[in-house]
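Run log, item B.
One chain of 1014 residues. Sequence copied directly from the ordering sheet:
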Amino acid sequence: MHRRLLARISNRTRASEAEAHERHRGLWRAAIFGGFFFGLGWLEIDRSWLEAQIVPWLDAGLSFQIGAGPSRSIRFPTYGPYDKRLGYAQIPLMIERLNDRNFALQEQARMSPRMLHLLDLGGYAVFHEKTQAGLVVRDGSGRTLQEPAYPTRAFQNFEEISPLLVQTLRFIEDREVLDPGRPSRNPAVDWSRFALATVGQLGGAIDRDWRQGGASTLATQLEKFRHSPDGRTAGVTEKIRQMATATARAYLAGPDTHAAQEQILTSYLNSTPLGSRPGFGEVIGLGDGLFAWYGVDWAQARRCLFLRASAPIPEPRCRALVYKQALSLLIAQRRPSFFLGEGREQLEGRTNAYLRALATAGVIDQQLRDQALGLKLEFVPRPPALPQVSFVEHKAADAIRRELLVALDVPSLYTLDRLDIQAEATIDAATQRRVATVLEQLKNPRAVRALGLVGEHLLGDADPARVAWSFVLCERGPDRNRVRVRVDNLDQPFDVNSGAKLMLGSTAKLRTLATYLGVIEQLHRELDGMPRPALRQIASKADDPLRRWVAAYLADAGQTDSRLGPTLDAAMRRRYSASPDETFFTGGGIHIFHNFESSEDSQNPTIEEAFANSVNLAFVRVLRDVIQHYESQLREADADAGQMDDRTRAQYLRRFADREGRVYLHRFDEEYLGLSPDSVLDQLAQQARQGPRSLAIVFRSVRPYASKEAMRRFFARHWASVVSTSELEALYTRYAPDKLSLSDRAFLAGVHPLELWLVAFREEHPNAVAPEEIAASAQERQQAYSWLLRSKDRRLQDTRIKTVLEQDAFDKLLIDWMRQGYSFNHLVPSLATAIGTSGDRADALASLMGIILNDGVWQPTTDLERVTLAPATPYATQMAYRAALPQRVFSPDVAAQLKRALKSVVDKGTGIVVHDVFVAPNGKPMPIGGKTGTGDNRFDTYAGGHQLVESRAVNRTATFVFFLGDRYYGTVTAYVAGSQSDQYRFSSALAVSMLRALAPQLRPLIAARNSQPQ
């Protein structure tokens, strides 16, 4: 038994030893595996080995490609500062607005499924982002018209950055970046800082003082600057989003992130937000920061900082100063609005502290430290002036910018220029530059003489530098017209072609002729086929002169000659007197017109001759016939058998009262503009008939509730004699506003009723504006002209009725002119409109020429073919111009007549200077036509008997609207503004001569385009 007991004890001992041995083996295994995994974890933290294998594989699926038509699954960013500044966040709205401007979505980016999944999880789109971007405008051949980049001053690559700056940034922000021994390191995560920040956040839940540290690296700060809401990290979720996106972006090129880290550092320096300054705007990046805050030239800054073996040693003070300024901006990035504003003293102190720390760490030497410490940061009071640009060279690009500004509804050109957009213009950049070069030379008298622009009816001894020139050339296409050249030599943003309403003289005869031929065509449709007796009756009795002529012509014409073409031919052969010995009732009064050349006074030209030689009086009479045609239509619509009854007459007179009353209200409004209530009352009293009664009426009408004592003080200011108390009380009572009508009070006071009413209204409504005054005075305007309705003198009434009828007729004329492309919603109701007094725009005249050249069919004219939003990004969207449907404006017969008339101007009229100047590819002269116009616009003052008292020059213009062959058309205009225009005597011959001078610049374009099919 003892032996069994010993054996049992021995077995237990061996079992315990085995268990102990097994436990030791388990501990060793745990230690080995723990050490292995700890080593792997440390290796991953230090080298990012596992991430370098997995993330590039994930990145391989993060892609996009451009496809035709809209993308069904595209995502756009919404709130990042970078995404807003470059316009990525606004792309959906831009697409809608461009759709409204006849642009259709042609191409759009397709994001890969993995990219979409990343965005759906809350990440940002991962691609190679742009450091610089901005609106780029190119022509159809890819030649650049405008290519700004923002930020303007930036490092183009890592090699441009001074090593001193690189080491400084690493010391301040991210000391792990660009470690040559860790080529696969993830630059988005610094694990030690991340752990410290995590502990700080957890400890902050217990004690806010424990909350410290930040996990930001240069890579995550870039994500924050660009894509986080308001450029801030709002919480842990946003920080994780930044880290995840920065990680994916770092491995886009593969496991080796060294090149990505260089790009991160470069992008950081170019993308740092540094506040904003009036006169400069938002300051982004170190280069723009040095310029905007310290006035440092970017090229000089790089020279001062760059110190390499191959580079010359920079001047010590320059290096120290620029280095300290750059260092201060790297520090200010954390609170730019404070440090660059009221906290500049604190920024100085913090910069000096960093200088000492950088020297201690060996990043800079002690000499640089001491030199920089001895210099003070000096902010410039305002950003340096930007280099002056030539507005002449950028006219075409500026026109595109203005069009995009309106189309995209962008608040300013400043914002537009910073959007990542490429625009393809129809402008031919090479021709644009050639023409702009010539126009810029026209300020030099020697160049003007060399171009043949000096002589009779051209530029004489007057200063050519004061003449503004503009030129537009368009090309007709199968579905649209394209602007090929748009330039003027006005060195300011204003565009003479599209921004000015100018009196372009006899070019208005082209619109008048187009309307005249249209009326003839309309009457031909109405009367053609009627029996001859009926036609002869119309010819003898109609009050419409054009209806009489068409009826008489058709009554006598044979079957062949009664067709529309021969009728229009005959209409062009009608003769109109050019005599100035006639007065014209137009515009509510009597007017006298003159011809440009006195030799024309005795002529009786056909319409074709008058058009070719630009005879004023003939076209005044043509327009009179057109207006009488419209007046006849209006009378027929308003009365039975062409006779107005009393009711119709009263309606016309009331309309006259309403219109005339508005004119007077506007005049009185301008007279009293800016005056105080007391000054207004005093001025009205001075204009009234002098005497106690008139003064009482004025005072009681304007201030009906004022006291007798106030009226006594008013009398003391305006009436030298003493008025007794009883007389004053009698006047106060007798001339209360309710005792007499407005017209009676105004008559007794010797002022206009509406002037009296307006002063009283403004007394009660001091902040009223013109539309409110018009609305409130409807009844008073009728009362002011009640005498006209009661008058027994029908001649007085007939004169007013004729004025209203003429205004209505000009409204009908306006409708026709607007169909022709006229830009304005009002015509001066005067026959002088036939010779240009209603004004026009060069672009609008070119549009009319395009209609004529296209056989009477309007088609849209564009200077913008394509707009690409966010090119080369996952948001890329290309919008292409979609031509609107064409509309017929003239019949082919009318268009043919107009084209022949325009050609006669060049063949034998005022445009003969350019006859045979342009040659087609086959060597034959190109057919050329056009219309000249001279505007000598003056403000004339007349005394009784039409005696001219004063003639003050306002401006002078010379215009030629033309076509070249069957594809090209445009305008050339010379313009002198202000009283200085009185020194010039040029006529439209100057504009025609200018087209001849530009022929060498235009021939390469015309030859190249004519060799291509339409």
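Observations after the first pass:
- Residues 2-47 form the longest helix (46 residues).
- The chain is about 50% helix and 10% strand.
Flagged for discussion on Thursday.
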